[in-house]
Amino acid sequence: MNNIQVIIWLFPILFIFHDLEEIIFIQPWISKNRLYLCERFPILSKKLLPHFDNITTSSFAFGVAEEFILISIITVISYVMNWYSLWIGLFIAFTFHLVVHCFQTLIVRKYVPAIVTSIFCLPICLYIIKHIVQLFTLGTVVLYSIFGFIIMVINLGVIHKFMDVFSKWLAQYEHQR
């Protein structure tokens, strides 16, 4: 077994560790900071806050579970098939996601859910990327990073739509006899 076969298993672990902070804190954070966000970012708040008002912690966890399952499947396939290109692209997209949380915190100038785990995970991810760049061609890393980023953006869009649908379904389920 080579290093990459061990390293790839860190992705699902880092992902769920990071996203647990988001699951736990997103709703209370939005409630606590609603007025601040509306005053500081009025246009963005008008677009995003109604969406997050419809999303429950359960539906957010549902979306995270979908991402975790996708990452886990890709990790297993990478390990079994000894093919790491897609894994690399998604891992680099995840690392970019951590960097985005850092910038969110700088822009908002307050704690943002996921910043603590982003700060913890980012050095580990950068170390892994440094290792990946030594094992694979730069062209492969760049190409699959772009592909991974596209997959991430599309998946996030789909997940957020399904979170809203899932929230409505849960509300109906809760009131059924």
From TrEMBL:
Looking up InterPro entries in the UniProt record yields: HXXEE
Q: Which UniProt keywords apply?
A: Membrane, Transmembrane, Transmembrane helix
Does this entry carry the keyword Repeat?
A: no
Which parts of the chain span the membrane according to its record?
Answer: 6-26, 60-80, 86-104, 111-129, 135-158
Keyword Metal-binding, does the record have it? no
- What's the protein called, per UniProt? HXXEE domain-containing protein
List the source organism. Answer: Clostridium estertheticum
